[in-house]
Amino acid sequence: MTETVCRESEAPVVAIIPYGTKLSPRLANMSLDDLSWPIGRPARLQHGTVANMGPNDHIICYVSSQLLYMPRPGVRAQVSVMVVEPEAVHGRNMAWLKVLWWRFFRVLSCNPRLLARLPNGERYLFGSTWVPEYRDLSIEKTSMISLIASGKTYYPGHKLRHQVVAWIREKGVDAEILGRGYAPFDQKSDGLAPYRYSVIIENVREPGYFTEKLIDCLLCETVPIYWGAQDIDQIFEPGGMLICDSLEDIKTAIGTTSEADYRARLEFVAKNKEKAASYANHEEAAARIVQTAARRKTSQS
C-alpha cells in the first residue's frame, strides 16, 4: 500500500496493524514501518515505534483472542478493534467483546447483535477486493455464467457451491466452473470480467456480511447470482443482482440468464460498480470510521 505523508493538521491519525500480525504485550516496541497508514502518515511518525504515538492517535487491530486480553504497556495511542469475519468464525471473540468492549476506543463490526450490546460499536461493512486493478480492466462480455469455488466443504456456503456445481454438470448448464477446487486461473478478474453473470455464494449468511466475492463481481460489471447477506438489497441495487435464498432459487436464477436480461440490468450494474468501489479499500474505510468517531468525540468534549 502506498503511504501518503499527511499534514500535521490532519489529526486524528489512524494506523492499522496488518491482518495476520502476531500480537504480544510488547506492542509498544512495534516499528511504525510495520503498520499500514491508509489515510496518511504524519511527518512526526515517519520513524520510531508504536510507543511514539500519542493519546490522540489511533491504532486499529483485527480481532483475536490474544488482543482481547493482552496488556498493552507503553501504548498511549487509542486502540480499536475490527471484526471482519462472521459470527460463525468469531462467535467466541464476539461474546467476549460484549464484556471487554471498554478496552477499546471503537469496535467495528457488521454484526447487529454484537453492535446492539456495545456502547462503542460502529457499523462496518467489510467488503474488500481481490481485483485491485479493476479501474484498468478492459471489460468485454463474451460468456454467460461463471462459478468460482475452492475445494473446501466446512461452511454452509462451501457445501452449497459444490451442490450447484453438481447440478450444473448434471444438467449440462452453459456455465464455467473455476477456482482452486476445479480449474485454477491466474487473476481473479479472469473468472469474472468476461462473464455476464457469476454465481456468488458467501461462506455463511449473516446480515451485513459480504466479502470480496461480491465486491469483485460487481467491480467486473458482472451480475451476481447471490446467496449471502439477507439485507443485501438494502446495500446494493437489487436490479443489478439475482438474489437467492436457496439452491432452488439459484437454479431458477440461472435459468433466467440471457444477453437481453443482462442488457436490461446495465443501469443497475453501473450503480452497483460505483457502490462496490466504496467498499474495495476496507482498511481505508475502517480508518475513516475511527477518524470520524474521534472527531465526533472531540467536538462533544
From TrEMBL:
It holds the Pfam family Glyco_transf_10. Keywords: Glycosyltransferase, Transferase. It comes from the Bacteria. InterPro entries: Glyco_tran_10_C (IPR055270), GT10-like_C_sf (IPR038577). Coiled coil: none annotated. Gene3D superfamilies: Glycosyl transferase family 10, C-terminal domain. Residues 158-252 form the Fucosyltransferase C-terminal domain. This is Glycosyltransferase family 10 (Fucosyltransferase). It comes from Hoeflea phototrophica (strain DSM 17068 / NCIMB 14078 / DFL-43).
